[in-house]
Amino acid sequence: MPGGSASLSSFRIMAALLVGLLCCLPGVFAEIDSVFRSRPDLYPPALTIEHSVPGKVTPGYIFVGPYEAANSGPYIYDNEGNLVWSGWGSSGPGNAHGMHVCKYKGEDHLCFFQGAQQNGYCRGHGVIMDNRYRTVKTVVPGGGMASSDMHEFLPINDGKTALLTVYQQRQFDMSLWNVKTGMGWLMESIFQEVDVETNEVLFEWKSLDHVDPTVSYTYPGHTDTSGTGLDPRSPWDYFHINSIDKNQEGDYLISSRHTSAIYKISGQNGSVIWQLHGANPSFTNINFSFSQQHDARFLNENGTHTLLSLYNNGFNGFNKTHEYSSGMLILIDHVAKTATQLHEYAPLNNNMLSSSQGNMQVLPNHNVFIGWGNNAYISEHDQNGNLLLWGYIDKDRIMNYRAQKFQWDGMPTDVPALWTYSRSTEPFSSLTLYVSWNGATRVRYWRFYGAMNMTGPYALLNQVTKKGFETSYTFPHYYPWTYAEAVDLEGKVLGKSRHKFTFTPSRELQQYCANDTCENAQAYGLPGEEGASAFIPPLGLTTVPWVDPENPEAHYDWGESSEPASQPLDEAKETLKIAYDRGWFVPVLAVGVAAIGVYMVVRKCRLQRPHAYPVKERRSFEPLDDAIDERKQPDEMSDMPWWHWRRWTGASDGPHYFPLREPDSSRNEDVS
């Protein structure tokens, strides 16, 4: 029908326009990965810095743990967004959450949770890694319960003890929530302080012992992570603990997302000393509110006041209480029983609303660093809330639980990685070197060396300043062998790469390659070739050499004949035709006949000489005299006249290879 055809045509046009739009805007729908020629195994999500105030941003490194990415894991970046360390794979399997610098036995270490993602929580353990990126300790909870959770792993007391969260299913009477035909299931929030060396539980707190589920603002089946409460695989997560901190007096500060409250917990008996916000608060909020918050931290305390920080989500994906998420600095007056917001740290243009995760960190210089949770953005603000740094790992798909900033001195056990490229092996073909050292923070310069042989001597090509994760340098002349040295600010050599042979593309590829690198092929075949595919060898090329005993001439099974297989024969025919047309055929034929005659005469002379005939294989009990007699017998072929055809066909029969087979049973007979 005309109408139907018109509609179909319009649909095709719209579909084509949509596909074109998606192709033109790939960054909107997929994360951007970095690519390094010296480390092609690493392709971390790129940290893009959109706003930065020079001279105001705090020195240090940015620590994140992006997940729901192609390469989830712990990462370190610098203030310009350059990768410093990728822990993907080398740090272990699973996601990494909350990576930060901690003290362990007096030295700076990396500490983070590592484990498998569940629905709103995790199963795993805490990891302590030294500055050479070696795991020196793993920490797990005690008490015969579930493994630890992602929301907190915080070594304290110089790494002697650690705070960690546990999410444990527990049967519960849920008749108040219309679960009336049997027992319901709750997810109980637990935190422990454990001895790092022994995993002994020093303190334990369970939410059901102190906080009634009726005060929760997240009900069974209410959100995508709340759980139904009907079985242990979907328990109702009424509390959802997401941070733990400890003060000098030995009391704890915890955050509950699903009750929208902060609790101070007695380190003596686990009782709730006071509660900020939520149902039945201990204080009156003067100028603020929050909900679904994360990352509550003690900043200062005395007998009358408590200063703390938190990250206010203001949204859980279903209930929205705020127009944007933010960091908050809150002062509690214990005498007046009031709580006042001193500062708010807002996102760029006040338009970031995170439905989960997030954190706020007060830096030593009083600047504030914020991770924006399921929106994988980071920011830094001065004490008054002015935005100093704004960037993102990904705009849509990747999540990041926390982002923090610390000083860090990394010295990996591995050596620098080097890749060297030249478009050709001509002496004046330029040479480009790419070098990196994953996790090394002291490198300021790279020295490059080249030689004509692997063993040297090596000439110094240049010393260049380190730029980003991977530094490249182009030298005007070709060298087949190179290596690189990492140099610190004082000129000390920190490490040396392996000697690397220069990669050079084949002549067929050179026209598609640049002087400094050769980009990835975009498709099979040549440009404009339609329907090209990967080359698949003919059947039999990838098998071991084999000869059919029934047909020894068939050394390989080539499968069905194809057009390329007949090409050599066609070329031979064409050559003979050209030779005949040009008068070359008769002289060439005469020379060939003469050569054959000479060969036959020489062979006859050789056959008339005495021969050493091999002894036949025999059993050990057979007499050796028979074998000697056999050697004296004349060869049947040698007695034939030189013109007999059997003499030459028999002598020309070469050896063949046969497939492995079972041993001859006759050779295994009992000869005793």
From TrEMBL:
Keywords: Membrane, Signal, Transmembrane, Transmembrane helix. The chain crosses the membrane at residues 584-602. Residues 1-30 form the signal peptide. This is Arylsulfotransferase.
